[in-house]
Write a structure and sequence with these properties.
- By secondary structure, the protein is of the alpha/beta class.
- The chain has helices at residues 17-24, 42-48, 62-72, 92-101, 147-152, 173-193, 197-209, 213-224, 231-247, 251-264, 269-281, 285-305, 317-331, 334-351, 356-367, 374-383, 389-396, 402-415, 420-432, 436-449, 454-467, 473-484, 488-508; strands spanning 4-10, 30-35, 52-55, 77-80, 85-87, 105-113, 120-131, 156-166, 311-315.
- Among the domains are: 4-166, Alpha-Beta Complex (Spore Coat Polysaccharide Biosynthesis Protein SpsA, Chain A), CATH 3.90.550; 173-229, no CATH class; 370-450; 461-509, no CATH class.
- Helix 9 (231-247) packs antiparallel against helix 10 (251-264).
- The protein is elongated and about 90 Å long.
Length: 509
Amino acid sequence: MPKLTLSMIVKNEAKHLSECLNSVRDVADEIVIVDTGSNDKTVEIAKSFGAKIYNYKWINDFSAARNFALYQSTGDFILYLDADERLDGKSIPEIKKILASDRKAAYYCTVKSYDTGGGRDTSMRYTRIFPNYKGLAFKGKVHEQIVQSLVENGIKLIQSEVLIHHYGYDVSSDDKKAKAKRNLSLLLEENKKNNSSYITFQLGQTYDILEDGENAVKNFKIAGESCKLEKQHRGICFTSLALHLHKNHQIAEAENYINRSLNIDDKQPFAYLLASKIALRKSEYNKAEEACKRAYMINKELSVKGHKSPLAIILNPEEIIYFGLLMALQNRNNANIQYYQKILFSYYREQCPQTEARRIVLIQKLLSKSSLLPEEIEVLADMCSPVNLDFIVFTSEGNPSKHQILLIAETLLKKNPDSIELRKLKAKALDELGEVEKAVLEMEKIIRDEDRDPALYFYLISYYIKLGRMDDIEPIVQIIDKYFSDIPDVVTRITPLKNAIQTLSKVRQ
């Protein structure tokens, strides 16, 4: 039977390497590891698995290191992995079938990247298994690719069911930014030499991680308009643009881009979820609910059956379910409330059997606007996550005890200190408890951290009115008029305030 070489490049991967090598020990005949300067136990771990280890001076070029590893490989086929990846155990029999067929072809594998914090797992298709032909070479200083070389050498590309788990994105926000910052310099250097739409796409993704919206939008626009870029990547560009516009309340433009995304690729759950949120902003409730259900069904299909496209973003089902449930509550759609509640409870029974009873009781209490026991507030804090936070805030506002609403906000803020929604809930609770001065201080702090939401300014104005601080209102109205005058609902609300301020000024004169 043809032999398989596992080909890797590593640096300071002691944390991940053992699990990676363990995952392939029953299928790899040879392990070739190129080390680019580790000073931890990476090399020691590699030796314990019988790996052939080669030192390589890092020259800021991932492809150069990959190609050096290829040169050292003697197997008939190559499987390449990163240290933070694992071969799924169920994929080993298929790889053995691929080797036994001795077919001189390259094979697409699914690489599933996990992101617990973000709540979104991304599945992409890469040619990770290919014949060891002379002349094959990776290209690109970063996000290195082998497909172009395979095609140039006449090697057929075939789909497979091989699954690889990737945990490199399942890290803190700071770690993601550090990695993105490193990649950015390499991408910019590569872009000067080889201005390709794929590199531009990766620049957009990288700037997004670094929270540089201006440059992210710039690169997504360029890449999205390129017909040379695969349609799935173009769809992601347009979805990303729609997301930026939606965050900035530019709803008409956001709708245009999300429609372009769905016209290119209608198998992306996140695109439908964003389309639902955009439609909701336009008060198009039926359209919003239809798009949300579509997002859920496609996401479920991709999760169960897998996919053959080069790229698919698979969401945590809770993100869609909780948004659908929240929207149904806001729209008072009892049928959809029951629909999403049933799905959510079923999901908890399957995924969280040890805690599902407590979760279900707690959600039922939130939905019925009941007070919570002290221990239930602690459970709620443990349950709280980015995917259900908006739902928790909305339903907590229905709690009959204003003191308990404040307690919920303060308890959840201990674990989610940066949450704008929880801080808003706290400010509103303080206001309703008559502690308006404290509500003002809290809302002013929120606006310093998040100045893109016009609703925050209207809350602050209402607090100023209660305190009789009329002179403080005019500067806030001017800010709203300057930055949010293109939003129809804002114009409707601010016009009477502007008229009242003008009238008051005339009276004072």
